UniProtKB/TrEMBL annotation:
One of its GO terms (molecular function) is cyclic-di-GMP binding. InterPro entries: Cell_synth_A (IPR003919), Glyco_trans_2-like (IPR001173), Glycosyltr_2/OpgH_subfam (IPR050321), Nucleotide-diphossugar_trans (IPR029044). It is found in: Membrane. This is Cellulose synthase (UDP-forming). Keywords: Glycosyltransferase, Membrane, Transferase, Transmembrane, Transmembrane helix. The lineage of its organism: Bacteria, Bacillati, Actinomycetota, Actinomycetes, Geodermatophilales. Its main location: membrane. SUPFAM superfamilies: Nucleotide-diphospho-sugar transferases, PilZ domain-like. Residues 207-413 form the Glycosyltransferase 2-like domain.
Length: 703
């Protein structure tokens, strides 16, 4: 689910032993290779503890905001409810304000303490780990970097790829890299069912779970596993962060801040101190026995991660949140992907409310109940946003004012709490939620959150829709603006035109140049500005359908193309742009591209075809099944250490005996012609699905 200093091992925390089959990699930490396209990462590390002075200021302003808001709401309830026809407008407006006051209080409680979680020292050997990468239909150039990075993580572990798509090309790639390929006969309950199937096969104490697009750092396990010195700890979650910084969710191109930054870097750390940090589906480590005790990953809702954590907490298990970016994935690149993701999360939240309402569910502490209530109630904020947008419209259309107080008095009584609230929210957000960006996305989220909350009235879990990553369309078509936003913009704009006509006496409503008219006019104008900004962002050509299968990293690295010196301009796992000195190469010619990467003794050599050229700039498409070479290129791009990938291949470490049900015959051995056809370029997914004949052949091959 769907935001300076100190590291765990620098504080005397024991770490996993280095993998003897891979050996230690000098300089394999974050400073060794920043990655070709990784964001600056200036705030990726565990935040430094706040000074006592700053903490005092933050909390003092927060308390002042809560007290001022409580005083304002008391004044509103006791003295300002209007009489007569204005009452029907005054009561809803007061209800919206009361809801906002409760939301402020819950936010202050959640973000009161966001200090880094302490890590207990571990006596004895580290627990065994199986890394599970769940995939269904993601493109191979999205999946390959994750598998390569999981294999390259420091610590004794093995990596399993759980493919619910039964794709031969995935099996070929995974086995070539040295990971274990696992499929299942029945594909029920989507990702939750996929993980539960694997849970029945693993024999390790812990499982680390990654989505197909989230690429971990080498230190992921050494940072998270030490927490499990606590025998009652079931879960360690880390932040979700994204390397495609031009996505729809990011503040601006190249910026680290994104729409979920506040949640992952501030709210989740606050939940940790309430004992309510929850699993977000990826970038997490879980205790296998704890999952088995609660019946496995929850299948009753679409937000299986959140629901499973609540079951763990109800059973007395604990969770921890490690506030350090240790993996990077793909954010929703387009508005359509963003809305599909938020609708799924919202529907899942409503299903949890029906199945395990935190106010009535047994086994939770008071702080856990409030924390879960805050998370689930946040989905209803869209109704508050819509209500605050429409109340001033109603004032302009009817001439009725929802507050029985002089405009100057109302402005003073409401203004002081409002200013304190904004200052408190800014301080409590610790710089991860710029005000204008947050307000913009309140409007942008409106359609998906409204639709999601309405499903509270419907039964069933609904369909699990995988968020589109990588290629999302053949043409760069702009996204369609949700009808709710278009209608809201029309209503807001129409109310301003209606008011202008009222000044000339052309409508039944009479307005004067006083506070009861000027305040709602300004309110509507500002709201309309944010709605139009949201519509403009949705229609921005930058966020149209993505035609590339994978992320393209800018680069400036020396290379050689068929013996000619060249400069690498950018690269993806499907191809590259290079500037070749001399006469260059003709279009259609097959070439070899040799790239000198920072942490590898020899060049990475890839075969490709020149697809087009402009002057000395050549666009190459990689060809053939060059899995190990592409893994080395991926490791460099993501800063995971290409030196771990020798040209001869990698043999994974194993933990325990190989489970028979999880074993499969290599696809290339059983169907070499099919795999060759499936992998036309290195990373083009095949449309062919396994047939019954394939399954019979595999059974015979297994003996």
């Amino acid at each position: 689910m769907c935001r300076a200093a100190g590291r765990a091992d620098a504080c005397g925390v024991s770490t996993l032993a280095a993998d003897p089959q891979r050996g230690a990699l000098p300089g394999a930490g974050r400073s060794a290779a920043a990655g070709l396209g990784r964001p600056t990462g200036a705030r990726d590390a565990v935040p430094a503890p706040e000074s006592a002075r700053r903490l005092l200021v933050v909390r003092a302003v927060a308390v002042a905001a809560v007290l001022a808001t409580a005083g304002y709401l008391g004044w509103r309830v006791l003295t300002t409810l209007p009489e007569g026809p204005a009452l029907w407008l005054g009561v809803p407006f007061l209800a919206l304000e009361l809801y906002g006051g409760v939301a402020l209080l819950l936010f202050v409680m959640t973000t009161w303490n966001v200090a880094p979680a302490p890590v207990p020292p571990r006596p004895g050997p580290a627990p065994s780990v199986t890394v599970l990468v769940a995939t269904y239909d993601e493109h191979l150039d999205v999946l390959l970097p994750t598998v390569a990075a999981c294999l390259a993580m420091t610590g004794n572990h093995e990596t399993w790829v759980l493919d619910d798509g039964d794709r031969l090309e995935v099996e070929e790639m995974v086995t070539a890299l040295g990971a274990r390929y696992v499929s299942r006969p029945e594909h029920d309950h989507a990702k939750a069912g996929n993980l539960n199937h694997a849970l029945g096969l693993v024999s390790t104490e812990l499982v680390a779970v990654f989505d197909a697009d989230h690429v971990p750092d080498p230190q992921f396990l050494t940072r998270t596993v030490p927490y499990f010195a606590d025998d009652r700890l079931a879960l360690v979650q880390t932040p979700q962060h994204f390397y495609n910084t031009t996505s729809f969710e990011h503040l601006r191109p190249g910026a680290d801040l994104h729409e979920e930054s506040l949640f992952y870097r501030v709210i989740q750390p606050g939940k940790h101190h309430a004992g309510a940090a929850f699993w977000c589906g990826t970038n997490a480590v879980l205790r296998a026995d704890a999952l088995r005790e609660v019946g496995g990953v929850a299948t009753e809702s679409l937000t299986e991660d959140f629901h499973t954590t609540m079951k763990l907490h109800r059973a007395g298990w604990r969770s921890a949140y490690h506030n350090e970016v240790l993996a990077r994935g793909l954010a929703a690149g387009s508005p359509d992907a963003f809305y599909a993701q938020r609708r799924r999360w919202g529907r899942g939240a409503m299903q949890v409310l029906r199945h395990d309402n935190p106010l009535t569910a047994s086994g939770l502490t008071v702080r856990q109940r409030l924390s879960y209530l805050y998370t689930l109630s946040a989905w209803f904020d869209a109704w508050r946003t819509l209500g605050f947008a429409l109340v001033p419209v109603a004032v302009l259309l009817t001439g009725l004012f929802p507050v029985a107080a002089p405009p100057a008095e109302f402005a003073l009584m409401a203004g002081v709490p409002f200013v304190l609230q904004q200052v408190a929210l800014t301080l409590l957000s610790r710089g991860f939620a710029p005000a204008r960006f947050s307000l913009l996305f309140e409007v942008v989220r409106l359609p998906s959150n409204l639709a999601a909350t309405l499903t509270l009235l419907r039964r069933g879990t609904g369909r699990f829709a995988v968020t589109a990553k990588g290629r999302t369309g053949e043409e760069r078509t702009r996204a369609r603006v949700p009808a709710v936003l278009l209608l809201l913009a029309a209503v807001l704009g129409g109310s301003l035109l209606y008011t202008a006509a009222s000044f000339y006496g052309w409508t039944p409503t009479r307005h004067g140049l006083d506070g009861t008219t000027l305040v709602p006019i300004c309110w509507v104008a500002v709201t309309l500005g944010f709605v139009l900004a949201g519509i403009r962002r949705i229609r921005d050509p930058r966020f149209s359908a993505e035609r590339r299968d994978g992320h393209r990293f800018p680069a400036a690295m020396q290379a050689v193309v068929d013996g000619a010196p060249a400069l690498l301009i950018d690269v993806s796992l499907g191809g590259a742009q290079v500037r070749i000195r001399g006469v260059g190469v003709a279009v259609g010619v097959d070439v070899e591209l040799a790239i000198r990467v920072p942490d590898r003794a020899s060049h990475v050599v890839l075969r490709g075809t020149v697809r087009s050229r402009e002057g000395d700039v050549h666009r190459l498409q990689f060809t053939g099944r060059q899995w190990v070479e592409l893994a080395a290129l991926s490791a460099t791009a993501f800063g995971a250490g290409a030196a771990r990938w020798a040209a001869a291949g990698v043999t994974p470490s194993t933990v325990g005996a190989a489970p028979e049900r999880g074993q499969r015959v290599r696809a290339a051995e059983l169907h070499p012609d099919v795999v060759a056809a499936a992998v036309r370029g290195p990373l083009v997914p095949a449309s062919r699905r396994p047939t019954s004949e394939d399954e019979d052949a595999r059974d015979l091959a297994r003996g």
